[in-house]
Design goal:
Blueprint: E1 6-11, H1 15-26, E2 31-34, H2 41-46, H3 48-67, H4 81-105, E3 109-111, E4 115-119, E5 122-125, E6 128-137, E7 141-143, H5 157-160, E8 169-173, H6 177-188, E9 192-196, H7 208-220, E10 224-226, E11 231-237, E12 240-245, E13 250-253, E14 255-258, E15 262-264, E16 297-299, H8 310-325, E17 339-341, E18 347-351, H9 354-361, E19 364-371, H10 375-379, E20 385-392, E21 398-404, H11 408-420, H12 425-430, H13 452-457
Parallel strand pairs: 1-2, 1-6, 2-3, 6-16, 8-9, 8-14, 9-10
Antiparallel strand pairs: 4-5, 5-6, 7-15, 11-12, 12-13, 17-18, 18-21, 19-20, 20-21
The chain binds NADPH dihydro-nicotinamide-adenine-dinucleotide phosphate (NDP).
Residues 146, 173-179, 181, 197-199, 202, 204, 230, 259-262, 308-309, 339-342 line the site of NADPH dihydro-nicotinamide-adenine-dinucleotide phosphate (NDP).
């Protein structure tokens, strides 16, 4: 008779939790997962996947316009939000089913209810106690709206995916991934979009040139991007919402969407009672192996607030399962993680920003280029693509790669492999470009940008 009901009990059936369950089951472990909302978590239901579908939808507006320059005569385009959302919902339901089948085929027990710990080896779900040798917390994070008067009138990305109709005027508050992505989505679909960010330039943490280029391109596309601006209160006035900014300006809209970050979902899970230490923001504190302060309890994904990206959660989930049931403990590798922002135009990046590289390496070489993509030589659309390479002078290694332009995520994925492999600028230069592409620009950058000091002295 085994000592515990399960070898692994996972709380949360999102990307990280499901991956850990399946890998653990593959190692022969007896596994259960409790999920009270939807299988697939944020990414599948209210994140990456539906977001990307909405981004595709938003791009068609410009595509129809651009088509004329290529000889296509297209009638007046009309956008149907309800149809898009119904199609999107159908695809998400299909994915929920895929996740369920994958778990079942791996022999994982799925418990569709809320779970909490009663001690370090016991999970309680709907009054029933399940004991487990290992427990994995993979409960993700949830959007937060700051407590301003009228906050309850605002929506977050969770509701944006299910709106009954496309709002004609939208205010988006925040300057992170979600905010710029939804500004592009609503703008592309024809809504009037105002994005407010509390600081001088959005996308804090991204390369400064990338931030400035995106702000300019978004403005050219018609998004009203306001910096050093924040909402003080929101009021309903008939069918409209009125947002009063801190400087007294009044904005009127049909929807106010907050994209001001996400909070790890740890409340009410009994974690601290079981001895699991949390950070100030509620995130579960873990070591390099994703082990918490309790020896048999691990945590992966957004609930740990390390790098909050699905592929990172997948890597953490796999490593945890290998650590628990494989031949040797495995640490997830958090270095050189590429990412994309599906703004319009999109951003792709890997490695250090220019500022980080200067601080870490001292002498660096910066190579950049801004150009009109070939497609727009015919359309006349005023949209630029921007690429930037940052090179550590001493080793000649490329330590940062950044792009703003169509397909940036697709392009940077490949270059991330080169960077991970330690590619030097000389090796980039020795690589033949693929013509005509935007990506070839990365292997054609020969002229170093002037040093900021030299530039200032001119
Ligand atoms: P982020 O943490 O990226 O951005 C939050 C934004 O809201 C920041 O601009 C922040 O400003 C601002 N903000 C925070 N608090 C307040 C406040 N009280 N009042 C006004 N503004 C505020 O969060 P997101 O929700 O955009 O995304 C969460 C995470 O999800 C991302 O960090 C990313 O890891 C992941 N994600 C990834 C995507 C992708 O890979 N394409 C897409 C979407 C999400 P400040 O910078 O000044 O603190």
């Amino acid at each position: 008779m085994p000592k515990y009901d399960y070898d692994l009990f996972t709380i949360g059936g999102g990307s990280g939790g499901v991956r850990a369950c399946r890998v653990a089951a593959g190692h022969g472990a007896r596994v259960a997962v409790a999920e009270d909302r939807y299988l697939g978590g944020t990414c599948v239901n209210v994140g990456c996947i539906p977001k990307k579908l909405l981004v595709y939808a938003a791009h068609f507006g410009e595509d129809f316009e651009d088509a004329a320059a290529f000889g296509w005569k297209v009638g007046a385009a009309k956008f149907d939000w309800q149809r898009l959302i119904a199609n999107k919902n159908r695809e998400i339901e299909r994915l929920n089913g895929v996740y369920e089948r994958l778990l079942m085929d791996s022999g994982v027990d799925i418990i569709a209810d809320r779970a909490h710990l009663s001690d370090a080896h016991t999970v309680v779900v709907n009054g029933k106690r399940h004991t487990a040798r290992y427990i994995l917390v993979a409960t993700g994070a949830w959007p937060v709206v700051p407590p301003i008067p009228g906050a309850e009138l605002a929506i977050t990305s969770n509701q944006a995916f299910f709106l009954e109709s496309l709002p004609g005027r939208v205010i988006i508050v925040g300057g992170g991934y979600v905010a710029v992505e939804f500004a592009g989505i609503f703008n592309g679909m024809g809504a009037e979009v105002t994005q407010l960010y509390r600081g001088p330039l959005f996308l804090r943490g991204f390369d400064d040139d990338v931030r400035a280029v995106l702000a300019e391109e978004m403005r050219k596309k018609g998004v009203k991007v306001l910096f050093d601006a924040d909402v003080a209160r929101i009021e309903r006035r008939g069918a409209e919402l009125r947002a009063e900014l801190r400087d007294g300006t009044e904005l009127v809209a049909d929807a106010v969407m907050y994209a001001t970050g996400r909070k790890p979902t740890t409340a009410g899970l009994g974690l601290e009672e079981a001895g699991v230490k949390l950070a100030e923001d509620g995130a579960v504190l873990v070591d390099a192996w994703s082990r918490t302060s309790v020896e048999n309890i691990f945590a992966v994904g957004d609930v740990t607030n390390r790098i909050n990206l699905t592929p990172v959660a997948l890597a953490e989930g796999r490593a945890v399962a290998d650590t628990m049931f494989g031949d040797e403990p495995k640490k997830p590798d958090h270095t050189g993680v590429p990412s994309a922002v599906f703004s319009q135009p999109s951003i792709g990046k890997v490695g250090l920003t220019e500022a980080q590289a200067r601080e870490r390496h001292g002498a660096i070489g910066v190579y950049l280029s801004t150009f009109t993509p070939l497609k727009h030589t015919l359309t006349g659309r005023d949209e630029k693509t921007f690429v930037k390479l940052i090179v550590d002078q001493a080793s000649d290694r490329v330590v940062g790669i950044h792009m703003v332009g169509p397909g940036a995520g697709e392009i940077i994925q490949g270059f991330a492999v080169a960077m991970k492999a330690g590619a030097t600028k000389a090796q980039f230069d020795a690589t033949i470009g693929i013509h005509p592409t935007a990506a070839e620009e990365f292997v054609s950058l020969r002229e170093k940008a002037p040093e900021p000091a030299a530039e200032a002295a001119e």
